[in-house]
Amino acid sequence: MTDAQNTDYLSKLFDVHGVACVVHKDWVVPNSQLPALRGLWYPGQSSKDAGLLGVQVLVRDKVVIEEAFAGVGQGDAGLHDALGNFTVNSFHVLLAAFWGKNDPEQVTTREWVVGGKHYTAYIGNFGTRCSDGVPAHVPDGCSPPSKPQSNVSL
What we know:
Blueprint: H1 3-16, E1 21-24, E2 27-30, E3 36-42, E4 51-60, E5 63-71, H2 76-99, E6 107-114, E7 117-124, E8 127-130, E9 150-153
Protein backbone atom coordinates (compact mmCIF):
# COMPACT_ATOMS: atom_id res chain seq x y z
CA MET A 1 0.00 0.00 0.00
CA THR A 2 1.35 3.41 -0.89
CA ASP A 3 1.52 6.44 1.39
CA ALA A 4 -1.32 7.96 -0.68
CA GLN A 5 -3.58 4.98 0.11
CA ASN A 6 -2.56 5.18 3.77
CA THR A 7 -3.41 8.89 3.85
CA ASP A 8 -6.73 8.18 2.12
CA TYR A 9 -7.68 5.68 4.86
CA LEU A 10 -6.86 8.18 7.63
CA SER A 11 -8.76 10.96 5.82
CA LYS A 12 -11.83 8.73 5.59
CA LEU A 13 -11.64 7.99 9.32
CA PHE A 14 -11.96 11.70 10.05
CA ASP A 15 -14.66 12.12 7.42
CA VAL A 16 -16.92 9.41 8.88
CA HIS A 17 -16.57 11.12 12.28
CA GLY A 18 -17.66 14.50 10.89
CA VAL A 19 -14.25 16.17 10.81
CA ALA A 20 -13.32 17.83 7.52
CA CYS A 21 -9.67 17.60 6.56
CA VAL A 22 -7.17 18.42 3.86
CA VAL A 23 -4.07 16.51 2.87
CA HIS A 24 -0.70 18.24 2.72
CA LYS A 25 2.03 15.93 1.43
CA ASP A 26 1.49 12.78 3.56
CA TRP A 27 -0.15 14.62 6.48
CA VAL A 28 -3.89 14.60 7.13
CA VAL A 29 -4.80 18.03 8.50
CA PRO A 30 -8.20 18.03 10.23
CA ASN A 31 -10.02 21.39 10.18
CA SER A 32 -7.12 22.70 8.04
CA GLN A 33 -4.97 23.35 11.11
CA LEU A 34 -2.63 21.56 13.50
CA PRO A 35 -2.57 19.02 14.97
CA ALA A 36 -2.04 16.87 11.87
CA LEU A 37 -1.75 13.10 11.56
CA ARG A 38 0.05 10.65 9.29
CA GLY A 39 0.76 6.95 9.11
CA LEU A 40 4.02 5.40 7.91
CA TRP A 41 4.00 1.69 7.00
CA TYR A 42 7.07 -0.53 7.42
CA PRO A 43 6.34 -4.03 6.08
CA GLY A 44 7.83 -7.08 7.78
CA GLN A 45 11.12 -8.45 6.45
CA SER A 46 9.73 -11.94 5.83
CA SER A 47 6.40 -13.79 5.70
CA LYS A 48 6.69 -14.52 9.44
CA ASP A 49 7.39 -10.93 10.50
CA ALA A 50 4.67 -8.46 11.41
CA GLY A 51 4.84 -5.05 9.80
CA LEU A 52 4.77 -1.80 11.75
CA LEU A 53 2.51 1.20 11.29
CA GLY A 54 3.96 4.34 12.83
CA VAL A 55 1.22 6.90 13.48
CA GLN A 56 2.48 10.41 14.11
CA VAL A 57 0.55 13.41 15.43
CA LEU A 58 2.22 16.74 14.72
CA VAL A 59 0.91 18.80 17.64
CA ARG A 60 2.94 21.94 16.90
CA ASP A 61 6.39 22.80 15.60
CA LYS A 62 8.89 20.23 16.92
CA VAL A 63 6.26 18.40 19.02
CA VAL A 64 5.30 15.00 17.60
CA ILE A 65 3.51 12.14 19.35
CA GLU A 66 4.19 8.74 17.81
CA GLU A 67 2.58 5.37 18.39
CA ALA A 68 3.34 2.05 16.71
CA PHE A 69 0.89 -0.68 15.70
CA ALA A 70 1.72 -4.21 14.60
CA GLY A 71 0.20 -5.45 11.38
CA VAL A 72 0.01 -9.21 10.88
CA GLY A 73 -0.07 -10.52 7.33
CA GLN A 74 1.74 -9.95 4.08
CA GLY A 75 1.38 -6.90 1.86
CA ASP A 76 -1.87 -4.98 2.09
CA ALA A 77 -3.28 -7.50 4.59
CA GLY A 78 -0.60 -6.55 7.13
CA LEU A 79 -1.22 -2.85 6.68
CA HIS A 80 -5.00 -3.27 6.94
CA ASP A 81 -4.47 -5.24 10.17
CA ALA A 82 -2.28 -2.45 11.58
CA LEU A 83 -4.75 0.26 10.54
CA GLY A 84 -7.54 -1.70 12.24
CA ASN A 85 -5.37 -2.03 15.35
CA PHE A 86 -4.83 1.76 15.36
CA THR A 87 -8.51 2.49 14.75
CA VAL A 88 -9.74 0.25 17.57
CA ASN A 89 -7.09 1.17 20.12
CA SER A 90 -6.07 4.83 19.68
CA PHE A 91 -7.98 6.73 17.03
CA HIS A 92 -10.97 7.63 19.21
CA VAL A 93 -8.74 8.88 22.03
CA LEU A 94 -6.83 11.13 19.63
CA LEU A 95 -10.09 12.27 18.04
CA ALA A 96 -11.46 13.30 21.45
CA ALA A 97 -8.28 14.87 22.79
CA PHE A 98 -7.17 16.84 19.73
CA TRP A 99 -10.28 17.33 17.59
CA GLY A 100 -13.09 17.54 20.15
CA LYS A 101 -15.12 14.54 18.91
CA ASN A 102 -15.74 12.32 21.92
CA ASP A 103 -17.78 9.13 21.67
CA PRO A 104 -18.48 8.16 25.31
CA GLU A 105 -18.67 4.49 24.24
CA GLN A 106 -15.02 4.76 23.16
CA VAL A 107 -13.46 7.33 25.50
CA THR A 108 -13.93 8.25 29.16
CA THR A 109 -12.99 11.82 30.05
CA ARG A 110 -11.77 12.60 33.55
CA GLU A 111 -10.52 15.79 35.17
CA TRP A 112 -7.31 15.28 37.10
CA VAL A 113 -5.31 17.61 39.33
CA VAL A 114 -1.60 16.83 39.36
CA GLY A 115 0.84 19.06 41.20
CA GLY A 116 -1.83 21.73 41.53
CA LYS A 117 -2.46 21.84 37.76
CA HIS A 118 -5.73 20.78 36.15
CA TYR A 119 -5.66 18.28 33.27
CA THR A 120 -8.24 16.51 31.17
CA ALA A 121 -7.49 12.80 30.80
CA TYR A 122 -8.86 10.91 27.77
CA ILE A 123 -9.03 7.22 28.60
CA GLY A 124 -9.71 4.74 25.85
CA ASN A 125 -11.01 1.21 25.98
CA PHE A 126 -8.58 -1.59 26.67
CA GLY A 127 -7.37 -3.49 23.65
CA THR A 128 -5.55 -6.81 23.73
CA ARG A 129 -3.94 -8.98 21.05
CA CYS A 130 -3.04 -12.59 21.43
CA SER A 131 -2.42 -15.81 19.56
CA ASP A 132 -5.38 -18.10 18.93
CA GLY A 133 -6.21 -20.11 22.03
CA VAL A 134 -4.30 -17.86 24.41
CA PRO A 135 -6.61 -15.92 26.71
CA ALA A 136 -5.96 -12.23 27.16
CA HIS A 137 -7.46 -10.15 29.91
CA VAL A 138 -7.09 -6.78 31.54
CA PRO A 139 -5.97 -7.03 35.17
CA ASP A 140 -8.64 -6.40 37.80
CA GLY A 141 -8.63 -2.91 39.25
CA CYS A 142 -7.58 -1.12 36.08
CA SER A 143 -9.56 1.99 35.24
CA PRO A 144 -12.12 2.54 33.79
CA PRO A 145 -13.88 -0.67 34.82
CA SER A 146 -17.14 0.09 33.00
CA LYS A 147 -15.63 0.06 29.51
CA PRO A 148 -15.72 -3.02 27.26
CA GLN A 149 -12.53 -4.65 26.07
CA SER A 150 -11.59 -4.86 22.43
CA ASN A 151 -10.03 -8.26 21.77
CA VAL A 152 -8.19 -9.21 18.60
CA SER A 153 -7.05 -12.81 18.09
CA LEU A 154 -4.24 -13.53 15.68
